[in-house]
Amino acid sequence: MAGIGGGLAGLAVANYLLAKGLKVTLFESKNAAGGVQNTDQTDHRPGLVCNYRETNVPQSLMTFSDFQWPEGTSLFSKNITVKQYMQQYANQHMRE
Hints:
mainly alpha; FMO-like; FAD/NAD-bd_sf; 2 helices; single chain
């Protein structure tokens, strides 16, 4: 199976398919997971949001059921915190 995008939805779908025993390849245009929160510019394309801007979505709506946020994380986290959360999730769950 192939998935497009390493944001929240792409990671969740990939993890579900892996749990069902399928082999999954996830394609992401940036060099790491993070979706629109990935502000890495090594490919000379800016991220869609600024590193230190707060999200407008509460972290409770961006929580993976099998991966909790660090204790004390703000309800409306900074973009860099959301990006790190997704990248940590990907590193723990998307490796073969």
